[in-house]
Amino acid sequence: MLVVAFKPGHDGGLAVVEDGQLRFSLESEKDSNPRFSYLTPTTVLELAERLGRLPDVVAVGGWQDIGSPCLVGAGYDDPTAVITRQGRFFGRPVHHFSSSHVRSHIFGAIGMAPAAQLADLQAVLVWEGSVGSFYLVDRNLQVVRTIPVMDHPGAKYAALFAVCDPTFPSAGGFPRLSDSGKLMALAAYGASDGPDPEVRAAVDRVLKIPVTYPVPKAEFRDTPLYDSGVTSAACKDAAALITDLIFHAFAEVALREIPAGIPLLISGGCGLNCDWNARWAGLDHFSSVFVPPCPNDSGSAVGTAIDAHATFTGSPHISWSVYSGLEFVHDRAPDPASWARRDLDDQALAVALSQGRVVAWVQGRWEIGPRALGNRSLLADASSPATRDRLNLIKQREPYRPIAPCARVEDLAAAFWEDFPDPYMLYFRRVRDPRLRAVTHVDGSARVQTVTADGNAALHRLLTAVHDHSSLGVLCNTSLNYPGLGFINTMSDLIGYCEDRGVDDMVVGNTWFERVRPGPVAV
After folding, report:
1. Which of 8, 24, 26 is nearest to 16 (CA)?
2. pLDDT score for 522
3. What's 431's domain CATH number?
4. Count of domains observed in the chain
Protein backbone atom coordinates (compact mmCIF):
# COMPACT_ATOMS: atom_id res chain seq x y z
CA MET A 1 0.00 0.00 0.00
CA LEU A 2 1.28 3.44 -1.00
CA VAL A 3 0.21 6.35 1.23
CA VAL A 4 0.96 9.98 0.40
CA ALA A 5 0.18 12.44 3.21
CA PHE A 6 0.04 16.22 3.07
CA LYS A 7 0.54 18.66 5.95
CA PRO A 8 -1.24 22.03 5.53
CA GLY A 9 -0.30 25.17 7.44
CA HIS A 10 3.14 26.18 8.68
CA ASP A 11 5.91 23.56 8.55
CA GLY A 12 4.15 22.28 5.47
CA GLY A 13 5.36 19.12 3.82
CA LEU A 14 4.46 15.67 2.65
CA ALA A 15 5.38 12.12 3.52
CA VAL A 16 5.27 8.80 1.70
CA VAL A 17 4.81 5.45 3.43
CA GLU A 18 4.93 2.41 1.16
CA ASP A 19 4.34 -1.09 2.51
CA GLY A 20 5.23 0.04 6.00
CA GLN A 21 8.40 1.96 5.11
CA LEU A 22 8.93 5.71 5.14
CA ARG A 23 10.26 6.49 1.69
CA PHE A 24 10.22 10.29 1.85
CA SER A 25 9.54 13.08 4.29
CA LEU A 26 9.84 16.36 2.42
CA GLU A 27 9.44 19.66 4.25
CA SER A 28 8.92 22.72 2.09
CA GLU A 29 11.40 24.77 4.12
CA LYS A 30 14.29 22.60 3.01
CA ASP A 31 16.46 23.46 -0.01
CA SER A 32 16.95 27.06 1.20
CA ASN A 33 13.27 27.94 1.43
CA PRO A 34 11.91 30.07 4.31
CA ARG A 35 11.71 28.33 7.67
CA PHE A 36 8.27 27.04 8.60
CA SER A 37 7.03 27.36 4.98
CA TYR A 38 3.56 26.29 3.96
CA LEU A 39 3.40 23.35 1.54
CA THR A 40 4.64 24.46 -1.87
CA PRO A 41 3.90 23.13 -5.38
CA THR A 42 7.63 22.60 -5.84
CA THR A 43 7.67 20.11 -2.99
CA VAL A 44 4.76 18.20 -4.53
CA LEU A 45 6.51 18.14 -7.92
CA GLU A 46 9.76 16.91 -6.34
CA LEU A 47 7.83 13.95 -4.98
CA ALA A 48 5.89 13.33 -8.18
CA GLU A 49 9.18 12.86 -10.07
CA ARG A 50 10.22 10.13 -7.65
CA LEU A 51 7.10 8.00 -7.32
CA GLY A 52 6.59 5.21 -9.82
CA ARG A 53 2.82 5.17 -9.50
CA LEU A 54 -0.16 7.00 -8.09
CA PRO A 55 -0.95 6.41 -4.40
CA ASP A 56 -3.55 4.06 -2.97
CA VAL A 57 -4.30 6.50 -0.15
CA VAL A 58 -4.21 10.30 -0.25
CA ALA A 59 -4.13 11.64 3.31
CA VAL A 60 -4.52 15.23 4.47
CA GLY A 61 -3.76 16.26 8.02
CA GLY A 62 -6.43 18.28 9.80
CA TRP A 63 -5.82 21.97 10.39
CA GLN A 64 -7.44 25.24 11.38
CA ASP A 65 -5.87 28.61 10.73
CA ILE A 66 -5.68 30.84 13.77
CA GLY A 67 -8.58 33.30 13.79
CA SER A 68 -10.42 31.45 11.03
CA PRO A 69 -13.45 29.17 11.47
CA CYS A 70 -12.49 27.24 8.32
CA LEU A 71 -11.33 23.67 8.96
CA VAL A 72 -9.10 21.57 6.75
CA GLY A 73 -10.07 17.93 6.71
CA ALA A 74 -10.69 16.49 10.17
CA GLY A 75 -9.76 19.69 11.99
CA TYR A 76 -7.26 20.32 14.75
CA ASP A 77 -8.06 19.16 18.28
CA ASP A 78 -10.19 16.03 18.36
CA PRO A 79 -7.93 13.00 19.02
CA THR A 80 -10.58 10.64 17.62
CA ALA A 81 -11.46 12.55 14.44
CA VAL A 82 -10.97 10.43 11.30
CA ILE A 83 -12.57 10.83 7.87
CA THR A 84 -12.37 8.19 5.15
CA ARG A 85 -14.09 8.10 1.79
CA GLN A 86 -13.66 6.73 -1.70
CA GLY A 87 -12.53 9.23 -4.31
CA ARG A 88 -10.28 9.81 -7.27
CA PHE A 89 -6.79 11.23 -7.66
CA PHE A 90 -5.76 12.25 -11.20
CA GLY A 91 -8.38 9.88 -12.54
CA ARG A 92 -7.41 6.91 -10.38
CA PRO A 93 -9.72 5.51 -7.66
CA VAL A 94 -8.12 6.08 -4.24
CA HIS A 95 -8.96 6.17 -0.57
CA HIS A 96 -9.15 9.72 0.75
CA PHE A 97 -8.20 10.02 4.40
CA SER A 98 -8.02 12.81 6.92
CA SER A 99 -7.42 12.86 10.67
CA SER A 100 -6.93 15.68 13.13
CA HIS A 101 -3.69 17.54 13.65
CA VAL A 102 -3.49 16.20 17.20
CA ARG A 103 -3.71 12.65 15.83
CA SER A 104 -0.76 13.39 13.53
CA HIS A 105 1.32 14.00 16.64
CA ILE A 106 -0.07 10.98 18.48
CA PHE A 107 0.44 8.54 15.61
CA GLY A 108 3.75 10.03 14.57
CA ALA A 109 5.12 9.22 18.02
CA ILE A 110 3.54 5.75 18.15
CA GLY A 111 4.50 4.71 14.63
CA MET A 112 8.10 5.89 14.85
CA ALA A 113 8.68 4.37 18.29
CA PRO A 114 10.21 0.88 18.46
CA ALA A 115 7.50 -1.70 17.79
CA ALA A 116 8.43 -3.51 21.00
CA GLN A 117 7.35 -0.40 22.90
CA LEU A 118 3.68 -0.91 22.02
CA ALA A 119 1.98 -1.75 25.32
CA ASP A 120 -1.53 -2.47 26.56
CA LEU A 121 -1.58 1.19 27.56
CA GLN A 122 0.78 3.99 26.66
CA ALA A 123 0.80 7.72 27.30
CA VAL A 124 1.38 10.20 24.49
CA LEU A 125 2.18 13.76 25.52
CA VAL A 126 1.28 16.30 22.84
CA TRP A 127 2.58 19.70 23.86
CA GLU A 128 2.95 22.36 21.24
CA GLY A 129 1.84 25.90 20.41
CA SER A 130 -1.85 25.26 21.02
CA VAL A 131 -2.33 21.87 22.67
CA GLY A 132 -0.98 20.63 25.99
CA SER A 133 -2.50 17.24 26.91
CA PHE A 134 -1.70 13.63 27.66
CA TYR A 135 -3.52 10.95 25.67
CA LEU A 136 -3.80 7.38 26.94
CA VAL A 137 -3.83 4.96 24.00
CA ASP A 138 -4.61 1.25 24.27
CA ARG A 139 -3.18 -1.64 22.29
CA ASN A 140 -5.99 -1.28 19.75
CA LEU A 141 -4.81 2.29 19.06
CA GLN A 142 -7.91 3.80 20.64
CA VAL A 143 -7.53 7.02 22.60
CA VAL A 144 -9.22 5.94 25.81
CA ARG A 145 -8.58 9.07 27.84
CA THR A 146 -7.57 12.69 27.28
CA ILE A 147 -5.88 14.47 30.19
CA PRO A 148 -5.69 18.24 29.54
CA VAL A 149 -2.96 20.12 31.36
CA MET A 150 -2.37 23.55 29.82
CA ASP A 151 -3.61 25.41 26.78
CA HIS A 152 -0.94 26.93 24.51
CA PRO A 153 2.17 25.79 26.44
CA GLY A 154 4.51 26.39 23.51
CA ALA A 155 2.90 29.72 22.65
CA LYS A 156 3.12 30.89 26.27
CA TYR A 157 6.79 29.91 26.37
CA ALA A 158 7.44 31.98 23.23
CA ALA A 159 5.22 34.79 24.56
CA LEU A 160 7.66 35.42 27.41
CA PHE A 161 10.38 36.10 24.85
CA ALA A 162 8.01 38.44 23.01
CA VAL A 163 7.24 40.42 26.17
CA CYS A 164 10.96 40.99 26.78
CA ASP A 165 11.90 41.68 23.16
CA PRO A 166 11.74 45.39 22.21
CA THR A 167 11.45 44.43 18.52
CA PHE A 168 8.21 42.50 19.09
CA PRO A 169 5.09 44.64 18.53
CA SER A 170 3.03 45.62 21.56
CA ALA A 171 -0.18 44.57 19.79
CA GLY A 172 -1.10 42.15 17.03
CA GLY A 173 2.01 39.99 17.06
CA PHE A 174 1.70 36.20 16.98
CA PRO A 175 4.21 34.00 18.83
CA ARG A 176 7.23 33.47 16.56
CA LEU A 177 8.07 29.84 15.94
CA SER A 178 11.81 30.50 16.28
CA ASP A 179 11.65 32.21 19.69
CA SER A 180 11.15 29.10 21.83
CA GLY A 181 14.60 27.77 20.92
CA LYS A 182 16.15 31.11 21.79
CA LEU A 183 14.41 31.15 25.17
CA MET A 184 15.65 27.62 25.85
CA ALA A 185 19.21 28.90 25.34
CA LEU A 186 18.63 31.93 27.57
CA ALA A 187 17.16 29.82 30.38
CA ALA A 188 20.61 28.33 31.00
CA TYR A 189 21.92 31.80 31.94
CA GLY A 190 19.24 32.36 34.58
CA ALA A 191 18.15 30.81 37.85
CA SER A 192 14.57 29.77 38.54
CA ASP A 193 14.98 30.89 42.15
CA GLY A 194 16.60 34.16 41.06
CA PRO A 195 13.69 36.37 39.94
CA ASP A 196 12.46 39.05 42.31
CA PRO A 197 8.74 38.98 43.26
CA GLU A 198 7.72 41.31 40.44
CA VAL A 199 9.36 39.12 37.80
CA ARG A 200 7.82 35.98 39.32
CA ALA A 201 4.42 37.65 39.26
CA ALA A 202 4.90 38.59 35.60
CA VAL A 203 5.79 34.99 34.67
CA ASP A 204 2.68 33.78 36.48
CA ARG A 205 0.65 36.22 34.40
CA VAL A 206 2.23 34.91 31.17
CA LEU A 207 1.14 31.39 32.12
CA LYS A 208 -2.42 32.63 32.69
CA ILE A 209 -2.76 34.33 29.29
CA PRO A 210 -6.07 33.01 27.90
CA VAL A 211 -5.33 33.89 24.26
CA THR A 212 -1.78 33.94 22.89
CA TYR A 213 -2.67 34.49 19.22
CA PRO A 214 -1.90 37.40 19.26
CA VAL A 215 0.34 37.90 22.29
CA PRO A 216 -1.25 40.56 24.58
CA LYS A 217 2.12 42.17 25.13
CA ALA A 218 0.72 45.62 25.99
CA GLU A 219 -0.84 44.13 29.13
CA PHE A 220 2.68 43.65 30.54
CA ARG A 221 3.75 47.32 30.37
CA ASP A 222 3.57 47.47 34.15
CA THR A 223 6.06 44.62 34.64
CA PRO A 224 9.87 44.68 34.71
CA LEU A 225 9.90 42.24 31.77
CA TYR A 226 8.30 44.59 29.26
CA ASP A 227 10.89 45.46 26.58
CA SER A 228 13.64 44.64 29.11
CA GLY A 229 15.75 43.04 26.39
CA VAL A 230 16.07 39.30 25.91
CA THR A 231 19.60 39.23 27.36
CA SER A 232 18.62 41.17 30.50
CA ALA A 233 18.98 39.47 33.86
CA ALA A 234 15.22 39.69 34.34
CA CYS A 235 14.53 37.85 31.07
CA LYS A 236 17.12 35.15 31.75
CA ASP A 237 15.75 34.44 35.22
CA ALA A 238 12.20 34.52 33.88
CA ALA A 239 13.20 32.05 31.17
CA ALA A 240 14.59 29.66 33.78
CA LEU A 241 11.48 30.08 35.91
CA ILE A 242 8.92 29.50 33.15
CA THR A 243 10.90 26.45 32.03
CA ASP A 244 10.54 24.99 35.52
CA LEU A 245 6.91 25.97 35.97
CA ILE A 246 5.69 24.52 32.68
CA PHE A 247 7.48 21.23 33.24
CA HIS A 248 6.29 20.93 36.82
CA ALA A 249 2.69 21.58 35.76
CA PHE A 250 2.82 18.65 33.33
CA ALA A 251 4.87 16.39 35.59
CA GLU A 252 2.47 16.84 38.52
CA VAL A 253 -0.46 15.79 36.34
CA ALA A 254 1.50 12.83 34.97
CA LEU A 255 2.39 11.56 38.44
CA ARG A 256 -1.17 11.99 39.66
CA GLU A 257 -3.19 10.81 36.66
CA ILE A 258 -1.07 8.36 34.62
CA PRO A 259 -0.36 4.82 35.78
CA ALA A 260 3.28 4.21 36.63
CA GLY A 261 5.34 1.83 34.52
CA ILE A 262 3.83 2.50 31.09
CA PRO A 263 5.70 4.03 28.12
CA LEU A 264 5.70 7.79 27.52
CA LEU A 265 5.87 9.06 23.94
CA ILE A 266 6.42 12.78 23.38
CA SER A 267 5.35 14.87 20.41
CA GLY A 268 4.62 18.49 19.54
CA GLY A 269 7.07 21.37 19.25
CA CYS A 270 7.88 21.30 22.98
CA GLY A 271 9.42 17.89 22.29
CA LEU A 272 12.40 19.82 20.88
CA ASN A 273 13.18 21.24 24.34
CA CYS A 274 16.18 19.15 25.40
CA ASP A 275 15.93 20.28 29.02
CA TRP A 276 12.36 19.02 29.33
CA ASN A 277 13.17 15.75 27.53
CA ALA A 278 16.01 15.08 29.96
CA ARG A 279 13.66 15.75 32.88
CA TRP A 280 11.06 13.32 31.51
CA ALA A 281 13.73 10.65 31.11
CA GLY A 282 14.83 11.22 34.71
CA LEU A 283 11.34 11.24 36.24
CA ASP A 284 11.38 7.48 37.01
CA HIS A 285 7.64 7.12 36.47
CA PHE A 286 7.51 5.65 32.98
CA SER A 287 8.91 2.36 31.67
CA SER A 288 10.52 4.22 28.75
CA VAL A 289 10.53 7.62 27.06
CA PHE A 290 10.59 8.08 23.29
CA VAL A 291 10.84 11.32 21.29
CA PRO A 292 10.93 11.15 17.48
CA PRO A 293 13.46 13.31 15.60
CA CYS A 294 10.63 15.43 14.17
CA PRO A 295 8.24 15.93 17.10
CA ASN A 296 7.18 19.38 15.93
CA ASP A 297 4.98 20.03 12.89
CA SER A 298 7.86 19.07 10.57
CA GLY A 299 6.83 15.48 11.37
CA SER A 300 3.10 16.04 11.09
CA ALA A 301 2.84 14.67 7.54
CA VAL A 302 4.64 11.52 8.71
CA GLY A 303 2.15 11.17 11.56
CA THR A 304 -0.83 11.50 9.22
CA ALA A 305 0.71 8.93 6.85
CA ILE A 306 1.18 6.53 9.77
CA ASP A 307 -2.41 7.10 10.93
CA ALA A 308 -3.70 6.31 7.43
CA HIS A 309 -1.44 3.27 7.17
CA ALA A 310 -2.74 2.00 10.51
CA THR A 311 -6.36 2.59 9.46
CA PHE A 312 -6.05 0.51 6.30
CA THR A 313 -3.58 -2.17 7.45
CA GLY A 314 -4.08 -2.39 11.22
CA SER A 315 -0.43 -1.69 12.02
CA PRO A 316 0.91 1.71 13.10
CA HIS A 317 4.57 0.81 12.99
CA ILE A 318 6.82 1.76 10.11
CA SER A 319 10.50 1.35 9.35
CA TRP A 320 12.20 4.69 8.84
CA SER A 321 15.47 6.55 8.56
CA VAL A 322 16.08 10.08 9.76
CA TYR A 323 17.77 10.64 6.38
CA SER A 324 14.56 10.51 4.31
CA GLY A 325 14.82 13.86 2.51
CA LEU A 326 16.14 14.47 -1.00
CA GLU A 327 19.58 13.79 -2.41
CA PHE A 328 21.93 16.74 -2.85
CA VAL A 329 21.63 18.45 -6.25
CA HIS A 330 24.84 18.99 -8.25
CA ASP A 331 23.56 21.88 -10.35
CA ARG A 332 26.92 23.63 -10.64
CA ALA A 333 30.58 22.66 -10.43
CA PRO A 334 32.88 24.70 -8.17
CA ASP A 335 35.21 26.97 -10.15
CA PRO A 336 38.62 25.23 -10.16
CA ALA A 337 40.27 28.66 -10.03
CA SER A 338 38.67 29.17 -6.62
CA TRP A 339 38.24 25.64 -5.31
CA ALA A 340 40.83 22.84 -5.42
CA ARG A 341 39.26 19.40 -5.66
CA ARG A 342 40.65 16.29 -3.93
CA ASP A 343 39.41 12.96 -2.64
CA LEU A 344 38.24 13.02 0.95
CA ASP A 345 40.95 11.99 3.40
CA ASP A 346 39.43 11.74 6.88
CA GLN A 347 42.79 11.93 8.64
CA ALA A 348 43.84 15.04 6.73
CA LEU A 349 40.44 16.65 7.32
CA ALA A 350 40.73 15.92 11.05
CA VAL A 351 44.04 17.82 11.08
CA ALA A 352 42.48 20.73 9.18
CA LEU A 353 39.62 20.86 11.69
CA SER A 354 42.09 20.89 14.59
CA GLN A 355 43.70 23.96 13.01
CA GLY A 356 40.44 25.90 13.23
CA ARG A 357 38.95 25.24 9.79
CA VAL A 358 35.17 25.15 9.44
CA VAL A 359 33.83 22.51 7.04
CA ALA A 360 30.54 22.48 5.17
CA TRP A 361 29.68 18.76 5.28
CA VAL A 362 27.14 17.24 2.86
CA GLN A 363 26.27 13.56 2.65
CA GLY A 364 23.38 11.63 1.10
CA ARG A 365 19.79 12.69 1.72
CA TRP A 366 18.84 15.54 4.03
CA GLU A 367 17.64 14.95 7.59
CA ILE A 368 13.96 15.06 8.47
CA GLY A 369 13.09 17.42 11.28
CA PRO A 370 14.77 20.70 12.18
CA ARG A 371 18.20 19.50 13.36
CA ALA A 372 21.26 18.78 11.26
CA LEU A 373 22.47 15.27 12.04
CA GLY A 374 25.57 14.95 9.92
CA ASN A 375 24.20 15.14 6.39
CA ARG A 376 23.70 18.93 6.09
CA SER A 377 26.09 20.24 8.73
CA LEU A 378 28.80 22.75 9.51
CA LEU A 379 31.55 20.91 11.38
CA ALA A 380 34.36 22.44 13.43
CA ASP A 381 36.79 21.76 16.27
CA ALA A 382 35.03 21.45 19.63
CA SER A 383 37.79 22.77 21.88
CA SER A 384 37.94 26.54 21.42
CA PRO A 385 35.26 29.06 22.48
CA ALA A 386 36.41 31.10 19.49
CA THR A 387 35.02 28.34 17.27
CA ARG A 388 31.58 28.73 18.84
CA ASP A 389 31.72 32.48 18.30
CA ARG A 390 32.83 32.07 14.69
CA LEU A 391 30.07 29.57 13.95
CA ASN A 392 27.47 31.95 15.36
CA LEU A 393 28.89 34.69 13.13
CA ILE A 394 28.74 32.40 10.09
CA LYS A 395 25.19 31.42 10.98
CA GLN A 396 24.32 35.05 11.88
CA ARG A 397 22.87 33.85 15.16
CA GLU A 398 22.74 35.51 18.55
CA PRO A 399 25.97 35.06 20.53
CA TYR A 400 24.15 33.62 23.55
CA ARG A 401 23.08 30.54 21.59
CA PRO A 402 25.13 27.37 22.14
CA ILE A 403 26.68 25.16 19.49
CA ALA A 404 25.84 21.48 19.70
CA PRO A 405 28.38 18.64 19.43
CA CYS A 406 28.35 15.35 17.59
CA ALA A 407 30.22 12.52 19.28
CA ARG A 408 31.08 8.91 18.58
CA VAL A 409 29.25 6.59 20.94
CA GLU A 410 32.65 5.17 21.82
CA ASP A 411 33.67 8.55 23.30
CA LEU A 412 30.54 9.36 25.29
CA ALA A 413 31.73 8.13 28.67
CA ALA A 414 34.96 10.10 28.42
CA ALA A 415 33.34 13.28 27.11
CA PHE A 416 30.09 13.48 29.10
CA TRP A 417 28.83 12.47 32.52
CA GLU A 418 25.72 10.77 31.10
CA ASP A 419 26.48 7.90 28.72
CA PHE A 420 23.36 7.12 26.68
CA PRO A 421 22.57 7.12 22.94
CA ASP A 422 20.84 10.17 21.46
CA PRO A 423 21.18 10.00 17.66
CA TYR A 424 18.66 12.80 17.10
CA MET A 425 20.06 15.50 19.43
CA LEU A 426 17.03 15.64 21.75
CA TYR A 427 18.44 15.60 25.30
CA PHE A 428 20.79 17.70 27.38
CA ARG A 429 23.67 16.05 29.22
CA ARG A 430 26.55 17.43 31.29
CA VAL A 431 29.98 17.92 29.76
CA ARG A 432 32.77 16.02 31.48
CA ASP A 433 35.90 16.74 29.43
CA PRO A 434 37.10 20.33 29.99
CA ARG A 435 38.55 20.48 26.48
CA LEU A 436 35.06 20.72 24.96
CA ARG A 437 34.76 24.44 25.49
CA ALA A 438 33.14 25.26 22.14
CA VAL A 439 30.15 23.00 22.83
CA THR A 440 29.72 23.54 26.58
CA HIS A 441 26.81 25.87 27.35
CA VAL A 442 26.99 28.34 30.22
CA ASP A 443 25.34 25.82 32.59
CA GLY A 444 27.78 23.03 31.69
CA SER A 445 25.33 21.22 29.40
CA ALA A 446 25.43 20.13 25.78
CA ARG A 447 22.85 18.83 23.29
CA VAL A 448 24.73 15.91 21.76
CA GLN A 449 24.15 13.93 18.60
CA THR A 450 25.58 10.48 19.28
CA VAL A 451 26.98 8.80 16.17
CA THR A 452 27.39 5.11 15.38
CA ALA A 453 28.96 3.40 12.38
CA ASP A 454 25.56 1.98 11.46
CA GLY A 455 23.66 5.25 11.92
CA ASN A 456 25.95 7.57 9.93
CA ALA A 457 29.02 5.79 8.58
CA ALA A 458 30.67 8.81 6.93
CA LEU A 459 30.44 11.03 10.02
CA HIS A 460 31.56 8.17 12.25
CA ARG A 461 34.68 7.66 10.11
CA LEU A 462 35.54 11.35 10.39
CA LEU A 463 34.97 11.35 14.16
CA THR A 464 37.23 8.30 14.41
CA ALA A 465 39.95 10.25 12.60
CA VAL A 466 39.37 13.17 14.99
CA HIS A 467 39.77 10.73 17.88
CA ASP A 468 43.01 9.41 16.39
CA HIS A 469 44.34 12.95 16.29
CA SER A 470 43.03 14.30 19.62
CA SER A 471 41.97 11.21 21.62
CA LEU A 472 38.35 12.43 21.61
CA GLY A 473 35.94 11.91 18.71
CA VAL A 474 33.81 15.04 19.17
CA LEU A 475 33.12 17.97 16.81
CA CYS A 476 30.88 21.01 16.67
CA ASN A 477 27.83 20.26 14.54
CA THR A 478 25.39 22.96 13.49
CA SER A 479 22.98 23.13 10.59
CA LEU A 480 24.10 24.15 7.11
CA ASN A 481 21.67 26.88 6.18
CA TYR A 482 21.21 30.56 5.49
CA PRO A 483 19.58 32.56 8.32
CA GLY A 484 15.84 31.94 8.35
CA LEU A 485 16.00 29.27 5.63
CA GLY A 486 15.99 25.49 5.60
CA PHE A 487 19.00 23.25 4.88
CA ILE A 488 21.06 23.92 1.76
CA ASN A 489 20.55 21.26 -0.88
CA THR A 490 22.19 22.49 -4.09
CA MET A 491 25.83 22.97 -5.02
CA SER A 492 25.11 26.50 -6.27
CA ASP A 493 23.71 27.51 -2.87
CA LEU A 494 26.56 25.77 -1.09
CA ILE A 495 29.25 27.56 -3.09
CA GLY A 496 27.57 30.93 -2.61
CA TYR A 497 27.14 30.32 1.10
CA CYS A 498 30.76 29.30 1.68
CA GLU A 499 32.19 32.14 -0.39
CA ASP A 500 29.94 34.68 1.33
CA ARG A 501 30.52 33.35 4.86
CA GLY A 502 34.27 32.67 4.65
CA VAL A 503 33.95 28.87 4.86
CA ASP A 504 37.00 27.53 3.04
CA ASP A 505 36.27 23.78 2.99
CA MET A 506 33.36 21.87 1.45
CA VAL A 507 32.97 18.10 1.61
CA VAL A 508 30.30 16.65 -0.64
CA GLY A 509 30.15 12.89 -0.47
CA ASN A 510 33.71 11.65 -0.93
CA THR A 511 35.02 14.88 -2.48
CA TRP A 512 36.78 17.65 -0.56
CA PHE A 513 36.88 21.15 -2.05
CA GLU A 514 39.44 23.55 -0.52
CA ARG A 515 39.34 27.27 -1.17
CA VAL A 516 42.39 28.24 -3.24
CA ARG A 517 42.50 31.73 -1.73
CA PRO A 518 40.87 31.78 1.71
CA GLY A 519 38.00 34.21 1.87
CA PRO A 520 37.14 36.75 4.55
CA VAL A 521 35.83 35.53 7.86
CA ALA A 522 32.11 36.22 8.23
CA VAL A 523 31.19 39.26 10.30
Report:
1. 24
2. 54
3. 3.90.870.20
4. 3
